[in-house]
User: Which sequence fits this backbone?
């Protein structure tokens, strides 16, 4: 039997509102009403995941629910904001109970881990797509944007990159069958871990930040464009995930590391005189933070090889159209 | 030539951020940053419109942009909140310039009329669907919810209802060809007018409110369920749009008036001793406000005919699955 929108909301999602003192009105009214504490700003972002584009049509519903929320939270991490609330607009062809239950479980796992309450939603009939709006808080004036990079800033990347891209390439059978993604890389692709704790540490530390969703080349490019700066990146300092060593051709390996998206690590820039703080943040979070280069006064992004020569990157990041 | 997400945003939507002093960071970063004035609460709601479900696949893109934002604003009107900001998640198969320009114009017409700034968005590739999250403000504690109706409250409906349903029925060829929708009814369906000014007047006046998107029967039902109340409605006081007199069968006419959605009028309940204020609000807004019945202590919704007998309504409102 098919379910009405209200039955579905009540059955699977209502508990996700949680006991949030700042939510004056939650799910079930025309709109949610939220208290924003004095001295805090609202930080908000929206992302849509479309079946067949952002996830495989036959992906596990738990993973779809997990990733949908995680990638939205990642946008707040990149602003040094604390995620707090979300709305969920779910479009699907049928009110399939088993699918919904698993989707809600994946969504809930991320919501609980990062302290996010679901405050509203919409359920519509149509081709499977998930749009989540994440809302969070930042101390007034403390958000870290893409546009604040200064000449001389050191450029950092958290964790490693390229692993999710390799896992995706394998799942799409675009890579030789001899290449196998590690469990860690598959996990990065299907259930990415937004760098919320790192983002919160970047307040008063970083001048600019972005999450790597479209690939380092594209996303660092956004920082440079918004900041009106250039950069020199030392390729041998880019933290490439171990899996990528299976790709023997160095050019192909570099393209994947620099152009593959979906890793949801943070790329951020830090004044040289604050670099000593980065090491202690890295230790405290048990998360590698690699300095990969320097912001320059020009508008050019230079990828520098170990021998000092310039590497010409042919492929840009993911293009949406 | 197809456009990248960033070109599209820059070309069609960037101006919509406007000069909004409360938007600290607008379109173009990982997330928007918004100042919420002290003493105000954030009010937010999300709605998705899917091609072929919520609008005809060949609908004018201007109308799609118009309606997408208007129906979201309507949810805030029903909370007695002032709309202020929106995000737009647009999923479409191709970056069609002419379509996008007209869509953006329709969206912008509504945004300007109601003082809404676009603060963020996402553009994805897939079957056409539009998800908008509307955000607004209400003085702390002054939101009007669905759950506040009190026994003895008078129940009001603004404007008239059924016109959008008749226009939809005609466009879908579900009604005899002798029936023709008026321009007003077509306008109601394609470019609905959210009752923002009325909503703002309902602060300190109404105990409960909802916008009529799924039909009076369904939406009044939500007020009753959330308030734990019943109601008696006098059918001859329900403001049925003039067009519906073309439907000769009285039962069919009533079903359309009570069950058709898409009118986006407000249904609200007011204590009997505040009824005198309704007349002056109606005059000030030049908007008819009809008292159609009374909230009762039971849980039953009774539709009363002019002769005092009960009318049994067979069809319920729009079901999403």
Assistant:
């Amino acid at each position: 039997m098919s379910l009405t929108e209200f039955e579905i909301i009540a059955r699977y999602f209502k508990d996700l509102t949680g006991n949030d003192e700042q939510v004056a009105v939650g799910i079930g009214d025309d709109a949610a009403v939220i208290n924003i504490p004095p001295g805090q700003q609202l930080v908000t972002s929206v992302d849509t995941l479309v079946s067949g584009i952002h996830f495989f049509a036959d992906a596990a519903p738990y993973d779809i629910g997990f990733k949908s929320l995680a990638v939205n939270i990642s946008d707040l991490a990149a602003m040094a904001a604390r995620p707090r609330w979300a709305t969920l607009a779910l479009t699907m062809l049928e009110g399939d109970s088993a699918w919904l239950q698993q989707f809600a479980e994946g969504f809930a796992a991320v919501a609980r881990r990062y302290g996010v309450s679901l405050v509203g939603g919409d359920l519509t009939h149509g081709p499977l797509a998930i749009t989540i709006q994440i809302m969070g808080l930042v101390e007034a004036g403390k958000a870290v944007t893409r546009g604040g990079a200064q000449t001389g800033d050191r450029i950092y990347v958290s964790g490693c990159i390229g692993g999710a891209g390799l896992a995706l390439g394998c799942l799409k059978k675009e890579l030789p069958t001899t290449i196998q993604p590690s469990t860690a890389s598959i996990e990065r692709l299907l259930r990415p871990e937004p760098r919320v704790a790192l983002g919160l540490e970047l307040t008063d530390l970083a001048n600019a930040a972005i999450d790597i969703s479209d690939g380092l080349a594209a996303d660092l490019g956004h920082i440079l464009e918004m900041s009106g700066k250039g950069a020199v990146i030392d390729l041998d300092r880019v933290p490439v995930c171990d899996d990528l060593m299976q790709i023997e051709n160095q050019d192909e390996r570099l393209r994947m590391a620099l152009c593959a998206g979906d890793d949801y690590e943070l790329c951020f820039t830090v004044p040289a005189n604050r670099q000593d703080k980065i090491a202690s943040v890295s230790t405290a979070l048990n998360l590698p933070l690699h300095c990969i280069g320097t912001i320059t006064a020009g508008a050019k992004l230079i990828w520098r090889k170990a021998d000092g020569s310039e590497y010409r990157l042919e492929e840009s990041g993911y293009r949406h159209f």
Observations:
- The CA atoms of residues 48 and 96 of chain B lie 20 Å apart.
- Confidence is low (pLDDT under 50) at residues 317-321 of chain B.
